[in-house]
Write a structure and sequence with these properties.
The protein is α/β, with parallel strands linked by helices and 432 residues long. The chain has 18 helices and 14 strands. The chain has three domains: 150 residues, Rossmann fold (3-Layer(aba) Sandwich), CATH 3.40.50.1980; 183 residues, Nitrogenase molybdenum iron protein domain (Rossmann fold, 3-Layer(aba) Sandwich), CATH 3.40.50.1980; 32 residues, no CATH class. Helix 10 links the parallel strand 7 and strand 8.
């Protein structure tokens, strides 16, 4: 059964602390295994990829080939229904439109001392987009990873995706086509991360790797960080829903289950100020689980990690939300805008009774790759900025250098770095 907390309970603070500290991610010490995989790929290249893919995925890459051909991608696009292709196109257009509005402008100005200063944005040359293939395939994640990189201007975009019997879900390939990605490899796991980081004869290395994966993928991303950039280490998905009694309990129940059906480690939390409404939601969940295709996953997630928190007033919710720092925050209340402005830590916020979190997973426009496991305290969702880098520019002439030189020389001498001081002073013919 899901955890139920009452703000009026004298043990509320203690129980809340237990909820906040509860670990949901599968605790696997895979570091040794992943380290060996990375070193194998690093030193043996394609041969390692062939052996590891055969070992873990039972696929012979010598027969199937590393790279998915353009013909396979076109065939996949042709095999999806018209309705599905339209949906992918609608989603892609909305995602591209939103992310296009994120593109920053270069900065250039001259300060009071006459120093020219600036900042220039430039796209990464090559990125690897890891697409998971676990309990479900996610063409929407292809769009969410690939389109921001396209908007940013990344020249080379590479998808790696584990395959089932050598075959990749046609919707995943169709999504890649819609997003304009033509370089796709049927390789997954830590070996894919290693190949993207270090390169092999068949796969050229990239500059940054983005996208979620299992414990092996996450650990591999940690280990190759520094050789390449990474976006984040994704944990199990989560949603916090703040709902008053004016909501339809069945709507909220589906919203909670939408998160729970992702993964048995996913977390769905309801915050309300009405106990009777909370009971109605629980009852609705019990009924809806009966005909949910992924009911086994959703039920385990709800029972193991779900929670209902009944507050005295929803005015208390912002403090609690910031403690939870959820990936997704859904505010199904009378005045959600007012409530949202009091929240500092959330990956994405969905306002009102007609904005279910699920709409954000597909077609709203903002990215659905978001910070999990309370990392919304210090990080943000995937964006165009993840595929850009900043270069600062300084432009001094003789007069402007003279204006600021003495302070720089003083600081250099204080740090015992005489060459620093002299490199400035010699231009001014100042006493060293």
């Amino acid at each position: 059964m899901p955890l139920k907390l009452y703000a009026t309970d004298k043990h509320y603070a203690e129980k809340l602390d237990q909820l906040l500290k509860k670990e949901r991610a599968e605790s696997k010490d895979v570091a040794d295994v992943v380290s060996k995989i990375i070193e194998d790929v690093r030193h043996n290249g394609d041969a390692a990829l062939i052996a590891l893919t055969k070992k873990f995925d039972s696929i012979d890459l010598t027969e199937k080939g590393f790279r998915v051909s353009l013909e396979e991608i076109r065939d996949a696009r042709g095999s999806v229904s018209k309705e599905q292709l339209t949906a992918l196109t609608v989603a892609a257009n909305r995602i591209e439109s939103f992310h296009a509005n994120q593109k920053p402008n270069d900065l250039s100005y001259t300060d009071e001392q006459g120093v020219g200063l600036g900042l220039r944005w430039s796209a990464l040359d090559a990125v690897g987009l890891y697409v998971p293939g676990g309990t479900a395939s996610y063409p929407s994640s292809v769009l969410m990873n690939a389109i921001p990189s396209k908007v940013a201007g990344v020249k080379r975009r590479v998808i790696t995706v584990p395959s089932l019997n050598g075959e990749i879900n046609p919707m995943v390939l169709a999504a890649a086509d819609v997003a304009g990605v033509t370089e796709v490899y049927r390789i997954g796991g830590a070996q894919a991360i290693a190949a993207l980081a270090y390169g092999t004869s068949s796969i050229a290395p990239v500059d940054k790797i983005v996208g979620p994966g299992n414990a092996y993928v996450a650990t591999a991303k940690k280990m190759v960080y520094g050789k390449v950039g990474i976006d984040s280490i994704a944990g199990p998905s989560e949603v916090v829903i703040v709902a008053d009694q004016k909501n339809n309990p069945e709507w909220i129940a589906y919203d909670l289950l939408a998160q729970a059906e992702h993964d048995t480690a996913a977390q769905s939390i309801l915050i309300t100020d009405n106990n009777s409404f909370a009971d109605l939601v629980v009852s609705a969940i019990d009924n809806l689980l009966r005909d949910l295709p992924r009911s086994e996953i959703a039920e385990k997630s709800w029972n193991d990690h779900g929670a209902i928190i009944v507050l005295n007033s929803l005015d208390e919710a912002p403090i609690l939300i910031d403690m939870l720092a959820p990936e997704h925050l859904q505010l199904a209340t009378e005045n959600p805008e007012i409530l949202s402005k009091k929240v500092s830590h959330a990956g994405a916020i969905f306002l009102g009774r007609y904005t279910p979190e699920a709409i954000g997973d597909y077609v709203a426009g903002p990215n659905h790759v978001l910070p999990t496991n309370k990392t919304a305290r210090f990080s943000s969702g995937l964006s165009v900025f993840d595929f850009l880098k900043r270069t600062t520019i300084v432009d001094c002439n003789r007069d402007s250098l003279r204006e600021i030189a003495s302070s720089a020389i003083s600081l250099a001498k204080a740090e015992g770095l005489d060459a620093h001081a002299r490199s400035i002073a010699i231009r001014m013919k100042l006493d060293q």
